[in-house]
Known about the structure:
By secondary structure, this protein is α/β, with parallel strands linked by helices. It has one domain (3-241): Spore Coat Polysaccharide Biosynthesis Protein SpsA, Chain A (Alpha-Beta Complex). Helix content is 48%, strand content 19%. It contains nine helices and eight strands. It has an eight-stranded mixed sheet with strand order 3-2-1-4-7-6-8-5, sandwiched between helices. The protein is globular.
Amino acid sequence: MKISICCPSYKRPTSMQRLVESAFSTCDDKTQVELVFYLDFDDLASKEMAVELMRVHGATNVKAITGPKIKLSHMWNHCANLATAEILMVCGDDIVFNTQNWDKLVWDAFEAVEDKIMFLHGDDGLHANRFGTHGFLHRNWVNTVGYLLPPYFSADWCDTWINDVANMLNRRVYIPIVTEHLHFVLNKATIDVTHQERLERDRIDNNKQIYTDKKLERDLDFLKLKTFMLQHAMERVLSIKV
């Protein structure tokens, strides 16, 4: 199964390069991994970096879509629409892959679950197995709920959404890979313009309240996914009987 790493990026061309290099230098099969970026129209430096990364790694391994500044969580959905893989990773440009053959561990984990409905994540250097800030979903999940991420959040909270739904399903799965989050709260980065704008958006938009107000939609996601799981299990039972 191919993996698409979906990643919005803004004014961080060197972080884009670091992410790509870490993903490809540690994966088992580069031909089965692609990175898909969402870039703002006016972010010329990042667009130039995307072109360079395509030149170095090939246009089938690195892709980019440019567009207006929309809700951050919806940018991941645009990446998912361009992606070609069955497995989609919700990734940030401040992530570094630190585990050799991480892709094989991801494939093996999904192969072990017949209906593929789960949220798979590793250790970001802060939450370990308690919470997945950046992780992997199969197309079965995405197609069932209608999106990779709920398109409502200008900052944060979409990871909480996925964790909460996965926990309701008892399908949040941790694997021993390190996807290190180089976040300023861990003193691994400075508060750059990207962080400044994100914090300001969160203050203005009150994403926490949006999350609270959307509880019924999370419950609906749970019901859609649970129904898919039950239908898949029933089809398997019927096929065995036949």
